[in-house]
Amino acid sequence: MAQDLSRETPVIAITSGEPAGIGPDIILSALKEQSFDARLVVLADIRLMEERAQTLGVSANIIEVHQTVDVRSHTKGNIYVSPIALAEPSKAGELNVANAPYVLETLTQAGRGCLEKQYDAIVTPPVHKGILCETGVHFSGHTEFFQAQCQSPHVVMMLATEAMKVALVTTHLPLKDISEAITEEAIRLVTKALHLDLQEKFGIEKPRILVCGLNPHAGEDGHLGREEIETITPTLDALRQEGLDLIGPLPADTLFTPKYLNNADCALAMYHDQGLPVLKYSGFGNAVNITLGLPIIRTSVDHGTAIDLAGTGKANNGSLKVAIHHAINMANNTKKFSK
Ligand SMILES: NC(=O)C1=CN([C@@H]2O[C@H](COP(=O)(O)OP(=O)(O)OC[C@H]3O[C@@H](n4cnc5c(N)ncnc54)[C@H](O)[C@@H]3O)[C@@H](O)[C@H]2O)C=CC1
Ligand SMILES: NCC(=O)COP(=O)(O)O
After folding, report:
1. What residues flank ligand 1, with Cβ below 6 Å?
2. Residue 58 alpha carbon to ligand 1 centre in Å
3. Least packed by Cβ within 10 Å: which of 103, 268, 305, 333?
4. What is the complex's ipTM, to 2 decimals?
């Protein structure tokens, strides 16, 4: 796509996600139900979007585009699609490994377009990690995919609802590898990236971050694990010397209570299933997943491909709407911050 330099309204790329999953469904319904203050470009197979719209009975105007200058501000039901061809026609609810390269291509083009400033942000509906891995490529998540594409030394996965933000020191790791991954360097890089992005992308001047311990009761003074004493506490102390407002390490089961959460901007968990179940319990369907620490803006939904619901009209599009709103706000904040 040709570059579009003279623009105030942000241009947001939305990938289709797994074509056999609910990605196309929630894009169609969200963009039909509501207008967004942005120029939205869906990176997808045109026939896939047309067929899914027909299956769902969504009367959308699907407009093929080849350059961002041709994309107007979003109005309900007008869906601009930058075409990327599927290898084989996709059936809702039926995974097909032949279409895995298509999914990766949508991500590659979105990331490249953002790095080249055609897009101000990327929003990603869910992909099926298992089917992508079946091609022989190890795909653990969008987070790691965009980290590699952007050559970012460290990224942070953060999920947010109206009520809380939860970020993670490690992302998609088997549980047995986590202790080893909780190093001084990892905590330092993640916490600093989180602090900076809370300022730049969320407009929080002095972010206060609650930090979880790794072990039950944050190690119980070393009786239930020593990572807090040997690694986490000294690293947080050093970061406090640099001016960061950090509380912890706190036992994760007490950190996630109103007394702490109401007086902080974000919680930092040590691993995926320490932090995310709490957030999903409190706001599944209305949360956004954001990758911090990238030179680009990327938001996503809080759920997976829900293959069982594809093409049925039962998929909830709430999280996608939130993800699009966050991408727009972050793009606008970033523009203000860089002026
Ligand atoms: N951002 C992403 O790309 C993500 C991708 N995944 C991938 O999705 C695949 C399936 O993962 P699961 O653990 O089964 O989680 P899932 O979120 O796809 O499904 C869990 C349950 O929630 C329901 N559900 C999910 N989204 C829904 C929605 N929008 N509206 C109504 N109901 C919904 C499903 O029907 C299912 O019963 C895996 O390959 C996983 O890696 C999972 C999370 C995020
Ligand atoms: N639980 C969130 C998740 O796994 C999404 O990961 P990613 O694809 O955004 O990296």
Report:
1. 22, 126-130, 142, 289, 300-301, 303-306, 308-309, 315-316
2. 22
3. 333
4. 0.98
DSSP E strand stretches across the chain: 11-15, 39-44, 61-64, 78-83, 121-124, 156-160, 165-168, 208-212, 245-250, 266-269, 288-292, 298-300
Does 1-152+294-339 match 154-283 in CATH topology? yes
User: pLDDT by residue (tens digit) across 47-74?
Assistant: 999 999 999 999 999 999 999 999 999 9
β 78-83/61-64 pair status:
parallel
What angle, rounded to 10 degrees, do the helices at 318-337 and 184-200 form?
80
> Closest residue (by CA) to atom 42 of ligand 1?
304
* Domain coordinates in residue numbering, the chain: 1-152+294-339, 154-283
Nearest to 46 by CA among 24, 31, 72, 64: 64
Q: 234: CA distance to ligand 2 center in Å?
A: 29
Is residue 266 within 8 Å of residue 158, measured between CB atoms?
yes
CATH placement of domain 154-283: 3.40.718.10
pTM recorded for the entire structure: 0.92
Cα separation values, 190 from 1, 135, 250, 277, 290, Å: 33, 31, 17, 20, 14
Q: Is the CB of 141 under 6 A from ligand 2?
A: yes
For domain 1-152+294-339, the CATH architecture is 3-Layer(aba) Sandwich (3.40)
pLDDT tens for each residue of 105-146 = 999 999 999 999 999 999 999 999 999 999 998 999 999 999
Distance CA 56, CA 146 (A): 31
Show the tokens assigned to 198: 């809370």
